[in-house]
Amino acid sequence: MAAGMSLFSISNLNTRPAFAVPQSLRFKAYRDKSPVGTHSVDVQSNGDQMKVTINIDLNVSMAFVTLFEFKHDCEEVWQSGRLVSLRSKTNDNGDKFQVTGKATPAGFRIEGPGGPAIAPADAYTSNSVWNAAVLQQKTVIDAQHGGIIGLSVSPQGAQQVTVAGQQMPAEKYQVVTPFVAGNVWYDEAGRWVKALFEKDGEQMEYRLVA
């Protein structure tokens, strides 16, 4: 592959692609070389309906003192490629949030700590990193804190990454939201395979294990 050539690019996503059923994914999270938790995406499909369960459990400690803790459990139901319901619980360093949402004729209605909000009917969520089509979005539903937040995406080019001990080409993107920033990588099939995130001053690497 020529230097700088993309496996797929945001320009290719200007027209929303067909919604592809994702694979279940499991990442181990590391701070430096130390494991600090997991991030899993479990997918169960039934016809044109899909339930996606996201579980994030991160804990950074030093000398028995917790420096950073983040736990997030979310269930999303998608029908024909559109989000129809969402419910989540989050513990963000002791701050606890609950978010619910459902599809309505006016759009996707979100109920969170900041009150109700209406997102477009075809909106993605902040958890939707498992679907590369999220890269074309300018805003997403905040599945952790509620409301609608901005999403900035910048392509960084193709790189070789290690997945389960094997080298493979992947496309790197820088992503920024009000709560987290970092980089994500997708393989040639559009599968999420790696991430580097910074949140509350802590940097973590996601390594795909299954």
Give a nutshell description of this structure.
The protein is mainly beta and 210 residues long.
Strand count: 15
Q: What's the main sheet like? A: 13 strands, antiparallel
Rg, Å, rounded: 17 Å
Please report the distance between the alpha carbons of the first and last residues. Answer: 26 Å
Low-confidence runs of at least 5 consecutive residues: 1-8, 13-19
Helix content: under 10%
- What is the general shape? globular
Number of domains: 1
SSE class: mainly beta
The averaged pLDDT comes out at: 88
- Can you count the helices? 0
The helix-strand sequence is: EEEEEEEEEEEEEEE
Oligomer status? single chain
Instruction: Kindly report the spatial arrangement of strands forming the biggest sheet.
Output: 8-7-6-5-4-3-2-1-15-14-13-12-11
Beta-strand proportion = over 45%
Written description of the protein model:
- By secondary structure, the chain is an all-beta fold.
- The chain has one domain (10-208).
- 0% of the residues lie in helices and 62% in strands.
- The chain has strands at residues 25-31, 34-46, 49-62, 65-79, 82-92, 95-104, 107-112, 115-119, 139-141, 148-150, 152-163, 166-176, 181-186, 192-199, 202-208.
- The chain has a 13-stranded antiparallel beta sheet, with no helix packed on it.
- β13 (181-186) and β14 form a beta hairpin.
- The chain is globular, with a radius of gyration of 17 Å.
